[in-house]
Amino acid sequence: MSNHILLIFPKIGNVNKKPDRPPLGILTVAATLLEKGISVTVLDERAELDFDRMLLKELQKQPVCVGISSMSGRQITHGLRISKLVKEYSSVPVVWGGVQASLEPRSTIQHDLVDIIVRDDGEEIFPRLIEALNSQCPALDQVRGIAFKRNGKIIFTDPPQPADIEKLPVIPFHLVDFNKYESDPRDHWAVDPKQILPIETSRGCPYSCTFCTESVRKKKWRALSPERVIHDLKYYLHTYGIRNFTFIDDNLFGNIRRGEKIVELLVQENLGIAWYTNIRTDYMAKADPAFITMLEKSGCKMLTFGAESGSKRILKMINKKATPGDVVAANRKLIGSTITPHFVTIRGFPTETRDDLMETFLLNCRLLLENKRAVCDSPCLIATPSTKIAEMCLGDQVKHFRLEDWAQILDVFKDKKPPWVLDETYEFIDNHRIFSAITSKTNRTFRISNFLYHLLLIIYRLNFRFGFDEHLSRLLGICLKKFK
């Protein structure tokens, strides 16, 4: 009977560069396995130049199973390739978990290369799954939160219970080699050394934006106590000597008083760390100067805001429960502070018109002009599985999507117009892809790019209103090449 598990985080794209941070999801699962006395090896395909050889070497140890984590999009393709290798070189069960398996359990378990799936929180489910696999009897039926195949039939067990995250052990970051990770150049908030530790202090979100995974999971918002958060930060700081932390919570301030208490304790402890998280615009719009000062003293270097759109109509459609006015107010609150406000808007919503999109671009322009530290990104919409937005985008065909179809969901804007995007909107997006190139810059180059970004927006607006020569944008494109 084996007492060893192999957990794998596949590549997300085809970019061959060091990842910026370790894979927190599978490390969190590994923590509970180690606590149960189960040996764990973690392989991060993003960080290994000789991944296939390492995989085959690990398979020779005959682990109980191979666990593969996957998000929707390109990571599915890499996960399937890895699953195929496992099948070719061993008889070890392949277990899929993560966001994709949780949002689309049926299409995931239906794939020939997947034997078992784990749904939602895997920390308490996975140890029970290992016990069942080792028992050599039909005990899989008794493991909540999984689906598996028996004699060609797919069996779903009872729904999983949300994990009590306060009881979860600290993350075993020693299972990965920190030398294989380095912060992205865009993470200019990080201090030396440049490694970043991802930390999760809560799960869920009280809001239900229609494009977000949390609108599907509908789990109660759960959080570590502020004291536990500080305890864990001290442990990671002293154990690994890394001073940069990113709180990956869906909503760190899901309970405002708890979030403020964490900030207060960070100031009191004076840990000398740098940190970053996301925060809602409507909350920051109401923040007083004393709170912003506390954020600075606590080590907060950057905050990401989901601005989503400059169109009130689109914001209402996606149930954002915030306004462009909140976005502008949040940006102004941080003027003069040392905190970088990072705003994310989305292009390509269903029913989005050219006017809607122009309002979004003009909102970005205003943010950059009013706050010299502001950063704006504007990615294209992802039709996240099982969300209302996915239904609006894909219609009834989404019910028949296979795992391979979800693997291509990030690339729908790449070569052709997605079916849900209006012709006039797609033409505008396709003709102005230069926005994405501009907003990817950092430091001094980023500042220059922001200036050009403002100028480009203004020219687009003038052209849209008065018919200015569209070739002006080409001139700006030539200028931008000098700063790449």
Automatic annotation (TrEMBL):
It comes from the Bacteria. Residues 9-140 form the B12-binding domain. Residues 191-419 form the Radical SAM core domain. SUPFAM superfamilies: Radical SAM enzymes (SSF102114). CDD domains: radical_SAM_B12_BD. The keyword GTP-binding does not apply. InterPro entries: BchE-like, Cobalamin-bd, Elp3/MiaA/NifB-like_rSAM, Methyltransferase_Class_B, rSAM, rSAM_horseshoe, rSAM_sf. Keywords: Iron, Iron-sulfur, Metal-binding, Methyltransferase, S-adenosyl-L-methionine, Transferase. GO terms for molecular function: 4 iron, 4 sulfur cluster binding; catalytic activity; cobalamin binding; metal ion binding. Its cofactor is [4Fe-4S] cluster. PANTHER family: ANAEROBIC MAGNESIUM-PROTOPORPHYRIN IX MONOMETHYL ESTER CYCLASE-RELATED (PTHR43409), BLL1977 PROTEIN (PTHR43409:SF7). This is B12-binding domain-containing radical SAM protein. It comes from Candidatus Desulfatibia vada.
